[in-house]
Design goal:
nine-stranded mixed beta sheet; 38% helix; 10 helices; Rossmann fold; alpha/beta; single chain
Length: 270
Amino acid sequence: MERINLGLINIMPNAFNYQKLLMKSISGVSHEVQLHPMKLVDHVYSSSSEMMDSSPSFWQVIDKTSLDLLILTGSPVEHLEFSQITYWRELCKVLDFASNNITSTLGICFGGLAIAKFLGIEKRISQQKHFGVLPFTSSGKNTALIGSKFSEFYMPVSTWARIDDESLKLKLNESVVSLAHNDEMGHGVLETKDKRFLMMMAHPEYSLETLEKEWVRDSDKSVPYALNLTESDFCQYKRYMEVASPNFFVNWINQHFKVSKRASLSCEII
């Protein structure tokens, strides 16, 4: 069985638990996936130092391994200006390398916003937190990723920022296409035309339990939400996630697996 090398830049709090959650989301892939967790040198992993201190950097990994795909996770810094983020310059260097050497890079939540910024698309910071399992309307422009049966689907959302529509207009349909839209969140899934970058403004890897724990934590801190939620909303969310949520991670890996292997083969022939 051919193997796909998947890089993971994990900048979420409690990185070990998040990595397990992410691995569950890709468990349905029919190919062998070799995960390569890596760290950003300029990031302080305050809640995950024991795990991440021993992890190689991105540059150490690519020095020894040809990555097929790369995931850039979320991080609770989407409310900050990019210039305030200590590892922003390093991340730009990573994305610059990925744009020419990695078949596809997937950014989740902050990771998606970071890729968008790298491409010249700004974000808009909100005064209230966008949270819940929200409906998104598919544009029908990448059915291999979303699935042809989903004209509308649901994704877990947890963010203080969204794509700035005015900034996106300058890129939309020229170098970037919108794959899904939500009335509250705006453009929820973006992809470059060459498919090198996929930007998710949501958390499709989140479980219902993950959402509930965050909601309880936020409620204790009186975090302002764009939508007022009650316990009964989570019963509805469960149904949405069971019947109308595409498996983005499996679809993304399967979509790019053959492309990546064809590229590898052509390099070997040369």
